[in-house]
Amino acid sequence: MPAAPDVASDRGLTRVEWLICTVAGLGFAFDLYESLMTALIVGPSLTALGHLTPGTADFNLWVGLFFFVPVVTGGICGLLGGYLTDIFGRRRVLVWSILLYSVSAAAAAYATSLTTLLLLRCATLAGVCVEAVAAVAWIAELFPVPVRREKILGFTQACYPVGGILVSGAYYLAVTYGDLLPEIRGSHDAWRYTLLSGLIPAFPLIVLRPFLPESPLWRSQRGVGTLQRPHVGELFRPALRARTVAIVLAAACTLAIPYAALQHTPRIVPGIVKRAVTSPREVQQMVSAVFLVQEIGSVAGRLLFAMLVIRIVGRRRLLRVFLIPALLVFPWVFFFAARDGLLAFATGVFFAQALFNGLHSFWGNYLPQVFPTRLRATGESLAMNLGGRVMAVTAAMMTTQLSSVVPGSDAAMRFANAAGTTAVVVLVGGAVISRWLPEPASAHLPQ
Question: In the CATH hierarchy, which top-level class contains the domain 16-207+225-436?
Fold first, then answer.
């Protein structure tokens, strides 16, 4: 049954509202831009800085560390960021977190050791994790009318995959034309230029920051003294405990999907194309091309969610619209399509990525509706960072370790089998836990 129409949702956006949506969309896009760099740069950087050979146990261990340590660090910092967002305001934390991930990503381009690169990636993911929580709370409270809020959250989150497309393009350009650019640390390594491009979002943010309003709901409660200091422990008191546990576990399972499988496609593609191309540059160009197709799938998934979110009232039902098909698509992609050639695999990851992005958008729309204002960012942060980062990223370690023991014709096929196995495990977990997710009491945000 579709949601009831809101008259206020039919009017056009004001200039300030367009600015808010632009900054939120920019933040979401570059969240993914900075995050997906890991998938593209980890292999070449391990070879260049660590002199490690793909497929070896040491190489797989470092791949796991680069997927695991920065995300866990970011998740822990994100928990603190949610707390700070409830104390100091949504806009302030949003701005500083974007600056943190931009500057640290650019600094990583000049790393001279794997340890330094890993530490700077930790700083980048810390900024990303904090920004994501602050942005969702900010947008949700700036647009209190339910249907309007759902639309704007849906469509601004649709900017996430734009970041994936942009980073795929940046990596392709760096691989193809890097020799024409000034050297970084005495080389023309494409992974260094890709990291340096992470500085881009800092520039528009510096210009637009003075024009951004604070959340009026947060500001009004703070002004009259009703905004009490948030405590994470409150989320585990009897009134909220059951919903908090169910939400964190469900978020952990569904948001583990990229760590389990999707972010490993750049290590699977070379094994698929190795008989067709011989040049390392051609291989990396094919990697970037498949990654681009994958991120176009992200756009499709986000737009599909934005259209469905105002038509499907039941939140559990909306989640299962994406979760149940994923249970069929992911095993096919990684167990079968990876063996059928590049076209089949690229087509499969398009649909797999679309389904995951529908699941990711779900949390951005759902979480503001289940936590009160003074705990909103803290609750969102617990779900997205403890569940969606710290717990979910263990799937990356599971995949990389399984890839050393599962059967397969070569290293790439073993990685595909491991990714498919881990994806099935987390998807089944998400489907089971989803039955305990609470339905929001009202379409309006709880006070």
Answer: mainly alpha
